[in-house]
Request: fold
Amino acid sequence: MLANMDGIRSLIEKTAIANPYTIRSLSGELSRLARKGGGVGLLFLLLYSCVYLETPKKTVPIQKVPAPMSAGTKRLVIVLPGRGDDLSDLQQSGIASTIQKQLSDADVWLIELTFPYYMEGRAPQRVHEQIVQPAKRAGYREIYLAGASMGGMGVLLYEREYPDQASGLILMAPYMGDEELIEEITAAGGLAKWQAGPKPKKIDSDNVGREEWRLIQSWKADNQRTRQVWLICGKSDRFHGAVKFIAPLLPPGHTVEPDGGHAWSVWTKGAEKVFSQINARRPETL
Reply:
């Protein structure tokens, strides 16, 4: 029984890591494992799957933890979590203090844009309506979006829906689709020759990676935007395959590759360099 439960847990987690946008493709395999596990196995399946499948009610806003720095500041960094992270994980990661050591007069908001918000299909809209717009009304004039893994995907989806609304984008090992999509771009001869296909009416698990790459592909003709984009990815990160296509579009120094894999310890190390650059280049007054 325990071995079967471990199989269910492993299947859910591996699929959510591979494609954090949905796990609908698991239904058949999960049913088979649940039948083998009997009633207890089915109960475990239902309880464990709720972590990923439960969607937020429309009335439930995205929660945030502010890390204020100085009264009256006009600068703000909004941090989106990775798959499986919550507000507690973001706080323990040290990313807020790392940012503020380099950008000493910026506030930081850690937001709980967790997996269910992506399942709902309105993650970018919620970020805009519940986080970015209120920040602008509060007087912030320089707003950066930073996201790790699934959160990096969230940053790109926001940019797709609301281009140039953020002052800058910090992508920390963003999820950019499955390995087959990376192989497809490679086989096409690179991002410049790759064809994304018709633009869909709605983002779903089948096209989310393609839409991220379509956005990044557009940066080739938008040098002004890439001046406000930074990429952080560990040298041994499982998502490192995307770096070879994104880095050439960014200015020198905007790609940071620390030693290590897919972890906050790696991203916070990279964030030191990125926000040091942002601090050095920002205007003295806004």
Summary: Confidence is low (pLDDT under 50) at residues 1-6, 8-15, 22-31, 40-53. DSSP finds twelve helices and seven strands in the chain.
